[in-house]
Amino acid sequence: MSEASNFHIDMLVAFLVIASAVAIAVKWVRLPYSIALVIAGLIIGTSNLLPEVEMTPSLILLVCLPPLLFEASWNTDIGVLRKNWCSVWLLATVGVFISMLAVATIMHFGAGFTIGTALIFGALISATDPISVVALFRKMGLPENLTMVLEGESLLNDGTAVVLFGLVSAATMSGTEISIPTFLANFFVVTVGGTLVGLVCGFAASKLISLLDDHLLETMLTTILAYGAYLIGERLHVSSVIAVVIAGLIFGNYGKTSAMSEKTRFAVTTFWEYAAFVINSLVFLLIGLQIKPALLIEHSQLIAVGVIAILLSRMIVVYGLCPLANKITPVPRKWRHLLVWGALRGSLCMALALSLPEAFLAKEAIIVTTFGTVLFTLLIQGLTTEPLVKLLRIERNGQT
User: Fold this and answer.
1) CA-to-CA distance for 222 and 205, rounded, in angstroms?
2) Residue 122 CB-density burial (10 A; 0-12 exposed, 13-18 middle, 19+ buried)
3) Looking at the domain assignment, is residue 400 inside a domain?
4) Of 134, 239, 286, 287, whose CB neighbour count within 10 A is largest?
5) Could you give phi then psi for residue 283, rounded to 5 degrees?
6) Per the domain annotation, does 398 fall within a domain?
């Protein structure tokens, strides 16, 4: 076996040992597991206890994101999602558009970013990261409808943000002027195309599994479905993120109930629960390891503007759009405060920033601002969200 292979295996084992130690530690320390992993990564990174590990865009977007999206959508009750469709849809689509424009405006005038650079940053930072949000709020026992708005938005707005990022960055890199009609037409094609890919893959996999009764084979087929929907979306140049989410929703609400035996459902659910736990652990550790405190201090003013931009834009989105959904899916006022403060960012934002080409002059500024903003949301917002729930007196494990 080569030295490189040994290095990667050693690092993987080390990461799993650290994640296990953190998981055991948080049993006694009142700290969210995901946040504790980021802190552990920061300590390890600054102490140089492990060799430097690079978070590459392909590692997050191609390896980690599909199974995490699939696991979250597989466990999403489409009936509850349907009850909250209006608020989820508004926040995950219109909200991301508004957030991108608001963030871009603040970064242009407050940080001196060019309009193109500001729009790129606005697009990549506007999606609440499902890895962060779902991992945190699933353990908090919040009301079902509030939890669905948080999880549903975090699942669906990734697709919107990735599509916007791709369209805006392509226009900026090529130096072409953004045409609103062309932009909207491309956005429509990519999102609808991803939805269709997800529908076809989800229903096809459900039909295939109905012909089988082998829990190991059926578990393997769900893995193929998660990555297959993503790869097909990539090959067809439509939203691969939306494709995975829709495939997971269809399979989790149709294939799981109509085509699987009870034994198989238990086996598949256990597998995906474990897979999500391991991948989440590795991702949050990686986030902590990527942060360079000295670099963040050097660019603290730029990061401060970025933090202000995401907070103000989030307020505009939530306080502006939620009242519009009230007649269909009511979102109480105190829930809106939590929707604002609980909008964490994570690995997707970092992966998109890292995916910018080296020739792009503002890449370093975007990466530093993104990393600093992500760290703020995870540590400051993440650690104070549960106290905010208590302050707002939001009932847990039931409806308010």
Assistant:
1) 8
2) buried
3) no
4) 239
5) -65, -45
6) no
252: helix, strand or coil: helix
Here the tokens at position 309 are: 């931009």
Answer for the pair 17, 10: CB distance below 8 angstroms, yes or no: no
Structural domain boundaries, residue 262: 3-392
| Number of domains into which the chain is organized | 1
Q: The whole model's pTM is what? A: 0.90
pLDDT tens, per residue, the chain with 400 residues: 444 444 478 888 999 999 999 999 988 887 778 889 999 999 998 888 888 787 888 888 899 999 999 998 998 889 989 999 999 999 999 999 999 999 999 999 999 999 999 999 999 999 887 555 555 666 667 777 888 888 889 889 989 999 999 999 998 988 877 778 888 899 999 999 999 999 999 999 999 999 988 999 999 999 999 999 999 999 999 999 999 999 999 999 998 888 888 899 999 999 999 999 999 899 889 989 888 888 899 999 999 999 999 999 999 999 999 999 887 888 899 899 989 998 899 888 999 999 999 889 999 999 999 999 999 999 999 888 888 888 888 776 544 4
